[in-house]
Structures are given as C-alpha cells and as structure tokens.
Amino acid sequence: MTETKGHVLSSLAARVGGRVSGDPTVVIHSLATLQTAGSGQLSFFANSRYLAQLKSSRAEAVLVNEAHLADVPGHAIVVADPYLAFARLSALFDWREPVVPGIAAGATVAPTAQIDPSARVEAGAVIGEDVRIGAQVCIGANVVVGARCEIGEGCRLEANVTLYPDVTLGKRVLVHSGAVLGADGFGFAHDGGSGEWVKICQLGGVVIEDDVEIGAGTTVDRGALEPTRIERGVKLDNQIQVAHNVRIGAHSAIAGCTAIAGSTKIGRHCTIAGMSGITGHLEIADGTHITAMSLVSRSISRPGAYSSGTGLEPHQQWKRNVVRFRQLDELARRVRKLEQTLEHISTEGQDDDGC
Amino acid sequence: MTETKGHVLSSLAARVGGRVSGDPTVVIHSLATLQTAGSGQLSFFANSRYLAQLKSSRAEAVLVNEAHLADVPGHAIVVADPYLAFARLSALFDWREPVVPGIAAGATVAPTAQIDPSARVEAGAVIGEDVRIGAQVCIGANVVVGARCEIGEGCRLEANVTLYPDVTLGKRVLVHSGAVLGADGFGFAHDGGSGEWVKICQLGGVVIEDDVEIGAGTTVDRGALEPTRIERGVKLDNQIQVAHNVRIGAHSAIAGCTAIAGSTKIGRHCTIAGMSGITGHLEIADGTHITAMSLVSRSISRPGAYSSGTGLEPHQQWKRNVVRFRQLDELARRVRKLEQTLEHISTEGQDDDGC
Amino acid sequence: MTETKGHVLSSLAARVGGRVSGDPTVVIHSLATLQTAGSGQLSFFANSRYLAQLKSSRAEAVLVNEAHLADVPGHAIVVADPYLAFARLSALFDWREPVVPGIAAGATVAPTAQIDPSARVEAGAVIGEDVRIGAQVCIGANVVVGARCEIGEGCRLEANVTLYPDVTLGKRVLVHSGAVLGADGFGFAHDGGSGEWVKICQLGGVVIEDDVEIGAGTTVDRGALEPTRIERGVKLDNQIQVAHNVRIGAHSAIAGCTAIAGSTKIGRHCTIAGMSGITGHLEIADGTHITAMSLVSRSISRPGAYSSGTGLEPHQQWKRNVVRFRQLDELARRVRKLEQTLEHISTEGQDDDGC
Prior knowledge:
Three copies of one chain form a homotrimer.
Chain A: E1 7-8, H1 9-15, E2 19-21, E3 27-28, E4 30-31, E5 41-44, H2 51-55, E6 61-64, E7 75-78, H3 82-90, E8 102-103, E9 108-109, E10 114-115, E11 120-121, E12 126-127, E13 132-133, E14 138-139, E15 144-145, E16 150-151, E17 156-157, E18 162-163, E19 167-169, E20 174-175, E21 180-181, E22 188-191, E23 196-199, E24 206-208, E25 213-214, E26 219-220, E27 228-230, E28 235-236, E29 241-242, E30 247-248, E31 253-254, E32 259-260, E33 265-266, E34 271-272, E35 277-278, E36 283-284, E37 288-290, E38 295-296, E39 304-307, E40 313-314, H4 315-326, H5 328-353
Parallel strand pairs in A: 4-5, 5-6, 6-7, 8-11, 9-12, 10-13, 11-14, 12-15, 13-16, 14-17, 15-18, 16-19, 17-20, 18-21, 19-24, 20-25, 21-26, 24-27, 25-28, 26-29, 27-30, 28-31, 29-32, 30-33, 31-34, 32-35, 33-36, 34-37, 35-38, 37-39
Antiparallel strand pairs in A: 1-3, 2-7, 22-23
C-alpha cells in the first residue's frame, strides 16, 4: 500500500465534528479493522456484534459513539455515527495520488479537444474531436473518449474506460475500468417479410450527473432519441447493465450484475441488490428496495421491500419441489375441491342434526 | 449531437416505399419522439397507446399507417409498418461518421497484416500477424486484433474491443466496446489425485457471420476443438456470455446479461429475454421465446414461449411463501392424503346408503 | 489455426504415463473430436455415450482406457483417465506462442518498474511505478498495470486487462481480456441527514495465488482494508463479479456470470455453476456444489449440492403457477385447516362407533 503522512487525532476529530477521548496528539498513519489495527492505526465500531473485538482492540484510536466509549481500550474519537465518520476520513488515506496536470507522452488528443490545464491524460488515452475536459479531471491509461463528450470538474476515468461520442459527465463522477458509456441501445425493428432485424440507430447520448460512481464493467447505453440519464449521487456497482432511455433517480444505489431494461424509470433513494433484473418500461417508486436476484416485471407504486425467487435447499429436495411447482395451479384447484367437498359433508351433517 | 444535412420528405418516403401526405418538399433534419418533435423533425406512430400524443404532436412529419393518417396534425409518410420504416430511415441520421481511410499515428500494425486501403485503424489499435481487414472496415481506438483474424467488409469494431487470435467476422459485423471474442472456453479436467484442475487448451476459434451485432462487454469464447459460431443476423445485447462450442442460429436476438453454457445450440429466429441462463449441451428449437431471467436446463423441441422463476411480491409475504416452497413436495403429499381420506369417507357413506 | 510440428505417438504416451497400442511412430499434428478427427489427429474417448463415434472414428489415434481399447479402429494410447490425459496433452497444441522477451515499441513503462529480461510487454501496454514483473511473464497489448503491482513468474495477461494499483499475482496466473482486478469495492456509508452516500475509500488490494485463471470480463474488487484473496488453483469463468473482502478457497471452480457479494468466504474444492448469486458475509463449506442460477443467501456448513429457483415451463402454465406461488402460504394454511377438519370428522366418527 502507499505510505501516507500521518494525521494527528485532533485534526481527524475536527473533520468529522467529533470529540477526542485520550491523547489528541497521537498520529494516525492508516486505517484498519478492530481485529488487525495496531500502533498508529484508526479503526471504528459500528456494529454491536463486534463488541468483543472492540474491547480487545489494539488500535491506536477508535471512532465510537458515546454509548460505547467506555469499551474502547485506547484513544477514541466520539461521534454520533462512527461508520459515516470513518467513510469521511477514509478519503485522507486513499491510494489515489493527487492529479498531476499534463498530457502524457503516448496519449492521443484531437486538435479540437479542450482540456483544462489542471487535468491529467495518461498514456494511451485517446481523446476525440470537440471533447471538453474540466479542471482536475484524471483520464486513465488507455481510456477512449468519443467525440463531443463533456467531462466535468474533478471526474476520474480509470484505465480502459470507454466513452462513446455524446456522453456528458457532471462533476466528480468516478468511472471504473472496463465500463462502457454510450454504446448503442438494443433497438431493432423486425422485418416480418425477411425475418431479419433492422437496426434502429441510437441517436440519444448519455447524461451522468454529479457525484455518480460507475463500477467496473458496467454498461450504460445511449438513448434511442433522447439521452439515458443517471441522476446525481447514484452509485452503480460492477457489471450492471443500464439499457437505453433508462432514468435512475438521485441517490439510488444498485449492486453488482443487476440489469435494467429499456425505458424503465427507477426512483430516488432506491436500493437494488445484486443480480436483480428489471424489465422495460416500468416505473419504480422512490424509496423502493429490491432484494438480491429478484425479477421486477411490474411497476412499483408503493415504496417498500420486494423480492422474488425461491430459497436455497439441498438439490434432491429442490428437484422434488420444482416438480410440484409446475403442478401448483392444479394443486390449488385440488385444495379448493377438497374444501368444497368438506363443506358439502359438513352441511349434510348439519342437515342430519335435524333428524 | 451531430448536425445532419436535411432530407426532403419525398426522398425519405421513396427510401421506404411510402407515400407523402402533405408537402413533399419539407426538409427533415433529425428524428424525435411524438412528444418532443418539432419543426424539421420526423417521428413515427406505431403503438395505439400513443394516439393522444400523435394527435397533439408538433412533428414536421410522422411515419404512420393508412388507418391513422387522419390523426396526423402535420405532414406524413404513409407506410404499412411505420416502426420498420423508422428503423430504416434512422441510419441516415446516425452519429457515426463515414469511414476515413487510413491508419492513425499511434496504431500498431504487424508487418504481415493485410489492411484494405479503404479501411480505418484508429489510434492505439494493435493489429496482429497475418490479420486480414476488408474494405470499409473501421477499427476503433485501442482495439486489439489477434493474429490470423479475418474481418470482413464493412465491419466496425468500436473502441477497446478485443479479438483473440483466430476470430473470423463476416461482413458488416458491429462489435461494441469492451466485447471480447475468442477468449479461452472454460474447460478443465479434474485430477482426482491432486484435486487440481488441468486446463484443456482451447484450440477452436470463433466464427461470426454477416450482419451480426455484439453488445458492449459481451464475451464469446473460442471453441475447444472447433469454432464457436454465431450465424448471420444474430443480435446480441450487452454483457452476454457465450461459452465454447455454442452455436446461435440465424436471426435470433438475445437481450442483455444472458449466459449460454458450453456446446448448447440455439435455433434460428429465437428471442431470449435478459438475464436468462441456458445450461450446457442443450438444443433449443427454432422460434423459441424465453422470458426474462428464466433458467433453461433442458432442451426445447417445440417452439413457443417458456418461463421460470417466481413473481415479485412484498418481502415479508415472499419470506413466508419461500418457506412453504421448501415444503411443497410434502404439502402435495398431504393434499393427496386428504383426497384419499375423503374418498374413503365418501365411499363409507355410500356403503351406509345400503343400510 | 496455427500449424504445430508433430509429436510421435510414443512421446505423447510417455507424457501421460500411457501405453501405445498400435504404431508408436505415427505422428500427431493436432487434436480433434472423434467425429471429425482424421489422419495425423489425436482424439479421446471419455463418455460411453459416444461409443458409436469411437467405433467409426477415423482418428489417427485415440486416448482410451483399457476397457474400450478393443473398440478403437486405429492406434491408441491407453490411460486410466483419457479426459485428463487429453487435457495434459492439449498444452502441446496451444495457439499461444512462446514468450518473445522484450518491451514492444509503443508500450509505456514507468522508470521505477522492474521487468524481468525474459518477460514480454506488448504494444500499448502501460506499466505503472514500482511494478515488478517476473520471468517469462507476457503482458498483452493495451494492458494497464497499476502502481506497485507484483506479477509472478509465468503469468499471462491477455490484451486489454486492467490491474489497479496494489494487485499481486502469484505464478502462472492467466487473466483474460477485459478482466479488471482491484477496482474499488462497493462501499458507502449512508448519510441520514442528506440522504447521500459517502464513499468509503477502498484501501486493501487484491491477492491472486498461483495457477489461478480469471475469465474475460471478470471483476475482482480490492478489499476495503485488507486484500480480497483468491487462493491457488481457483478457476473463474467469464463475467464473474467478486466483491471486496471475498476469499475463494483453493481449487474451487466458478462458472460464468456468478456474483459473490462482499466479505463472503467460499471454501476449497467448491463448484459453483453459472449465474449464481451469493450474498455477503456468508461462509460456504469446502466441497459445496451450487447448481446454475441459484441464490445462496445463508451460510452452508455441510458440503453437498444445493439449488434454488424453479424449472422452465410453458409461459401460460407458468403464469398460473406464479400467481399460486404468491398464495402459497395461504394455501398451506388451508391444507392445515382441511386436515384439522377431517381429523375432527374422523374423531366424531370414532365416537359414533360406540353407538
């Protein structure tokens, strides 16, 4: 890992509005878990499951809430939300170096591209015509930026990212390696005569708003006529597929390998767990939560948690249950018939009561 | 977006065998939806759900069928299939520029590669030994083409595509960024003694026939001994996995994130919705349709629509149902037993009738 | 395909500890299936389903076990495990060329990187500061290797692979195109006040042990604080997602498009079929087998085969069953009630017996 210059505990506390308990002058060089942290390391306590680890931790200091301060063996920063404070402080210890302005030898920049002098373009990157790149942007090695893209201040495109023409990124967007923004949406008209598919050229671009993060290998297709849009603060994990004309509302977070089909609108502040599939032309309400590997095939108008699928079971047992699932409608009819028969018997019995 | 020179309405109508209603000399500069289209823009009407939008559209002209011509406020092109006509015309407005022949500075081309003088190789592309590249081909920035690949006339490889050695593309194949064609199939023999996996080198290549489109991040593995093959006119969306020895029949269309395991043969004119999984060594009949997120684990001999999975429901309700699914075989046995008991009671009752 | 110089049958037999039946001096130039093999080609027989193909094969020679030697029309190598022997011999016929040492023109290597003189770096590759690359390593075209990565002897990174900083590969690791190792894990703290996600910088790296293979487009995220780790001999197919802090035990094999969420520990010698999803913070026992497209949402302590999902069925039938699944808990309650009613009737009947 990279070496970081240290930070005194009091300055870390000040950054997160916390209070130091213990020696405010101790120096923190790196972050670690409660179990592994030692001298010069800061950890955090955010889950009562790990109380034993807190009590025996050798961390130089721990981020902790007031209630558990007494359990900290060493120094501490007391905050209301230790996990959130840990997140904020983590940026100080990141492996990413500050942006070194300049265009590396071995990069290819079109003559009409406008690149802010404070931006960095690494070796092997290829920047197209009429591209605009803002201040403090870092374009990684072998990245390709298509014509007319606009990349806002503080964006970072990691190595081997691809932007097709007409992709706009807001400020501080982080795009991970292998991500592809702006490829053609999957649009074809079927020619009933020949049985062939006729391509519908995809003329919209992609708009990514401020503070979005896009994971490795994630694909966001360009819109058919208007841009596909990802609103500010959205976090997309790896290998997500976002089809054309989709809109993802602000501050929604989507875990890896989820796919969202064309023209669907996801609300704001949604969370979608990994490997879920969302079919096309749906509307998902703000504040909806989808559990892992669910299929969403209808719009959701009421926020809440939703799921589909079945649970894991031993394979032999599962095989028997799967057979029964295929007969489930029939089984339900048989139960209904049993109920009717029993109803009849019981009614007959009541008639008999009169005897 | 790019500016396009306009097309007069009559020339657009002629291209799709349509008839102009209104002024044939109006000039169309771009395409748009019924809702957003304005002056100089062409739209289409193909779904009666949008009739209100058609009636209030401010589009310069609309592609429409005879039945709805009267509902068009402005000019129109009357065709039998407006959506298909729209697809055909969309190519005139594409953002892709005509191919500018030549090999960009910063591309690396092996001395034995044969590149047609009308082809384009962008900066950062690396072309291997004995590669053959046909007329009007466009090789995007940072694309890698392995040794002995053959790329037919009019193909387009978008930025950051990877072709391993021994991949053959027919004519007019479009491969999107991040796609990988020809990586090793997943083949290993298990060494029972050591518990280790021994690699089976994958010696087949990949053959992609004419007019195929391959989405961003899609992977098509090379065959073990003979090539993996994708027949003409097939359309593959993003992040699809095609394993070794698979064959996909002509004009089938497969949506994003679907995976097809080794040696499976998909028929012609199939449609497979997104995130479906198809296990290995199957045969899927021509004209089969698979709905989203289905698991296909047996061959399909009769065309038709097939599905698996369960529907979405509120998480708490789903949790109860999932528990019941694990007991489904037992439940079915209990229903059978109830039926037998009732049968017995009812038979006893009939015996009693004789009293 | 590449031409290979031939190998006499006796030398092939010696490599796999087999016995030649027939002429030990015949020369084998390539490998093929029983059906397609001809003169100069070696095939194998490992599945009794293909007995008819064995008997009619025109292969120059076949790898076969003792029991089926009499069924081989031509020459043979007799071994205990023909499939395993075939795997071992396949390496002799691979399309990969021996590594040609040197750094290609058009590669970019940081001055502090240490590259073994027997290693190869292809055109367009970008090697970061303080990287160490071992003997006989091959770095493909347009690969990016981040700062401080260590790449052990005999590794091969195919074209367009991305390694973030702080990724360590053992010996003989094969990484396929489009794979991304070391991207940020998906870690954010939720700021309840603003509703925004605050990034937790991901400070751990990735450790890949010896003899691992990583498929095309697969992503392995860096750990939050300590490295994500893949133990020796693991085989990962294409488009797999391995989240931060995951550990995959030695010699496990995972098929395409499977996703493993954060902090889960997979045991050794597991097999996980394609498109499975494994949620976070689980422990999966050594020797566990998961069938295709299963959701694993609890830890597994007993080895065995596990499954989830439902089987494929015609779409109309499936729609009815899916409705019933939503009512499954209610159905089970109705069956319980029927049982109680019948119990009651039958008990009444017994009371009546006394009459």
